[in-house]
Amino acid sequence: MIRRRIVRIREWFERRIRRTPGGSWFFPHGLLAFIVGLYGFKNVLPLLDQIRIIQTHLKTFGPAQDFAHLPVVFHIPGGVPQTIIGLVQLLMSIGLLLRSRFAWVVTVLFSTLSLVVVLRQTPLSFVHLGFILLLLAGLLLARKSFDQSTVSTGSFFSLLSILLLMGYGIFGSFILGKGFTPPITSLITAFYFAVITMATVGYGDIVPTTDDARLFVVSLVIFGITVFSASISSVLIPLINERLKKVLIPEKRKMTRKNHYILVGTGSLARHVFQELSSRHLPVTLIVPHLLEEAPFAEADQVVGDPTDGEILKKAGAQEAQAILALLEEDAENAFVVLAARDIGSKARTIVSVRSRASFSRIRSVSPDMILSPEMIGGELIAMALNNEKIDGESFLRKALFLDKRMQGEPEAPNEGLPG
After folding, report:
1. What is the CATH number of the domain that holds 311?
2. For the chain, N or C: smaller number of CB within 10 Å?
3. Could you list the residue range(s) of the whole structural domain that residue 159 is in?
4. Are residues 330 and 229 part of one domain?
5. Prior bond to 123 cis, omega within 30?
6. Cα 416 to Cα 350: distance, rounded to the nearest angstrom
7. What is the per-residue pLDDT for 325?
8. Is residue 158 assigned to a domain?
9. Which residues in the chain show pLDDT less than 50?
10. What is the pLDDT of residue 403?
C-alpha cells in the first residue's frame, strides 16, 4: 500500500512537471532553486549578524581578542555546520537553476547533512525537520530535471566552491585567532594556516589549543578534502575520458535520422526488438540515459537524454521517424513518451509496452497506435492452450493487441483490443 502511494505521488509529480505552463524553464528546478536559496540565506543569517557585531566592536576588541561575550557563530551545534551548509546552498541554488547535475548532487548531500545537524539540536524543531524532509523529497522526485553535466559547468562551480572554502578557512581562523598558539592576528597568517591545513601538510608551527579551534580545523580538513576531490572528479576526469575516447574509439558515422525507428528502453524486450529490426537492416535510433557500450547497442545510433523531453525527441528525429517504440520498464514513463511525441507534432506511429493490467486503461487513454503486453499475451496463450482452444493468428492478434487504423488497416470496435 505504501509503495503504491509512493508510485502515485511520483507519477503525479512527473505529470505536473510536464503539464505545468512554462515548466521547461521554471518548474520544478526553478522552484527548488528558489527554496534552496531561501533556506541557505536563513542558515547564513547568524554569520551575517556575527560579522556585523564584530565590525561594530572591532576597534575595541581587536582581531585576536576573546569574543566570548559575543554570540559566537563558530559553535558546532548551530554555527559552523549550518553556516557552511547555508553558504553552499546559496551557491548551489544557481546551479539548480541551470539544471546542473553536479549542483543537484551537492545540494542533496548538504541537505542530508543539514538533517543530521537538526536532529542533534535540543530541543528538536519538528517544523524545521519536516521542511528539510520535504525539500529532500522534492529534490529526489525531480532528479531527472537536473541532467546538465558539462565540463564548463563543473569548472565554474568547482572554482566557486574552492573560493568559498578559502574564505571560510581564512576568516574562520582569523576570528578564532586567540584559540591558536601562537595566536593568528593577521589575514596573511590566516591565509597561510588555511592553505597548509586544507593541503593536510600541517607543519605544526600553528597549533589549535581550544575546543572551538580544534573543531574548526577538523571541519576545514574534511571540507577541503571533499571539495578538492569533487572538483578534480568533475573537471579532470571528464576531460581525460573525452580525450581517451577520441584516441581509442574511432568516431562513429552519424546516421541520417529520417524514415527511421526510435527505440526507447534498454530492457530485454527492447534488446530483442532492436536485434530483430537490425537483422532486417532497418535504421534504429536509441534514446538512452547514458552511452551504451555493451552489445547489442554498442554500434547503434544513440541519443543521450530523457525520452519524455520534447527536445530530446526532436534531436532523435521524431518528426521524421516512421515509429516511436516506448519499451521502458515503467508504464507511466511510456505514456509520457507518447504525450511528448504528440506535443512536438510528431506523426510517427507510437508503440507502447505495458507490464501491468491495471495500467492498460491509462495507457490506452493516451491513444497509442499499438499496445503490447508480453506478460498478458503469454497468459492468454497459456490459458487458450490449456483449454484446448484453437489459436488463430489473426483473431489472436486482434484480441491481444490494441491497434488503430494505421496499424491494422480497419476500424476497431470500442471495446476490442483488451487482453482477456
Report:
1. 3.40.50.720
2. N
3. 2-247
4. no
5. yes
6. 18
7. 93
8. yes
9. 17-24, 64-78, 403-420
10. 47
Q: What is the pLDDT of residues 240-290, one digit of tens each?
A: 766 666 666 555 555 678 889 999 988 888 888 898 998 898 999 999 887
Q: Are 78 and 98 in contact (CB under 8 A)?
A: no
Mapping DSSP to helix (H, G, I), strand (E, B) and coil, where does residue 301 land? strand
CB-CB contact of 67 with 61 (8 Å): yes
Instruction: Name residues whose C-beta falls within 8 Å of residue 275's C-beta, 6 or more positions apart in sequence.
Output: 296
| Contact by Cβ (8 Å): 151, 175 | no
Q: Which residues contact 82 (CB under 8 A, 6 or more apart)?
A: 43, 46, 114, 117
Q: Of 247, 279, 310, which one is at a domain's C-terminal end?
A: 247
Q: How far is CA 241 from CA 78, 101, 151, 294, 405, in A?
A: 41, 18, 11, 17, 48
Residues 225, 231: Cα–Cα separation, whole Å: 10
CA distance to 82, 186, 187, per residue, from 65 (Å): 24, 12, 15
Q: How many CB atoms within 10 Å of residue 388?
A: 6
pLDDT of residue 410: 43
Do 176 and 91 share a domain, yes or no?
yes
325 and 368 assigned to the same domain: yes
Residues 339 and 389 in one domain: yes
pLDDT at 127: 86
Is the Cβ–Cβ distance between 355 and 392 less than 8 Å?
A: no
Residue 164 near residue 194, CB atoms below 8 Å: no
Residues 68 and 130 in one domain: yes
Say if CB 275 and CB 252 are below 8 A apart. Answer: no
- Is residue 240 located within the same domain as residue 290? no
Q: Are strands 370-372 and 402-403 parallel, antiparallel or unpaired?
A: antiparallel
Quickly tell me which residue has 547533512 as its cell. Answer: 113
Residues 203 and 66 in one domain: yes
**How many domains are there within the chain?**
2
Q: What is the pLDDT of residue 216?
A: 83
Longest dimension (CA), the chain: 99
Q: pLDDT value at position 324? A: 93
Q: Is 255 inside any structural domain?
A: no
Which of 195, 225, 247 is the C-terminal boundary of a domain?
247
129 CB-near residues (< 8 Å, 6+ apart): 115, 118, 119
On whether residue 345 sits in a domain, the answer given is yes
Instruction: Give the pTM.
Output: 0.43
Question: Is 220 within a domain?
Answer: yes
